[in-house]
Amino acid sequence: MGTLSFLLKKVIAFFSLTLFLLSCSDDKKDYLVTIKTPHGDMKAILYDETPKHKENFLKLAKEGFYDSLLFHRIIDGFMIQGGDPESKNAEQGQRLGQGSPGYTIPAEFNKKFIHEKGALAAARKGGAGNPTKASSGSQFYIAQGKKYTEKELKKMTIDYNNLYRLFSQLIQDPEFSDIKNSYMEAQQSGDGNKVQEIIIEAKEEIEKKFSIELDTPLTEKQIEVYTSIGGVPHLDNEYTVFGKVIDGLEVLDKIASQKKDRSDRPLEDIRMEISVEQLPKKKITKLYGYKYE
Prior knowledge:
The chain is an alpha+beta fold. It contains ten helices and ten strands. The two termini are 49 Å apart.
């Protein structure tokens, strides 16, 4: 009886271990997204940390929702945008960008995910009509951007509204008459760049006088990525980044450089076809060099 009980325990332990290993192997898989275009294919992964966006995008892709839709808006040095359902049968020259599947997705901002070149992000309506910055149910864009110097990046983080307002107060103080004189001279000569330069150079004095911090320091990752790979830093924490192109960035560049009309719609239709497949994460890393955290 004792031997039988021991063997039974061994069998149960074996099957338990097998089930555990199978569940672990499932956890170690991910979805690889393929975006086919006339200019080549792009491969992308979607982030687990933005589950609502990932689930929605995969659902639409599996249903064939995106097939034959257009990249209807392209801006070289900025991004390419698609996913408007109205673009499937759009006439040449028709303005696009307002279509949706009839719902939005709550924003899922994550400071880890920035607008580096190749970032896959959700488009959305701007302005007071969308205070929560909810994402479009289907429209997305792929960031292209450019490379920046550290100096350029620091300028982009400045709160210019407060800077201009406090600069006007600063130059009323006789203590800063030299700054005021330089500013007035630049204004009178019509040198806009010099005016901007003087205001920015006065930033440190403004911060001391009014005890205020006028910029948000960039993270080490932002500085490293935007000075080496490039991207669109001013969109960070404004639009949900939910994935990343891990292969085919040259296709992004080709699409962005196409001729377009005044509405930024390509003169020749650029249709997409999106498919997904589940692969082991190790294989995705081996094929495309993407390293999971």
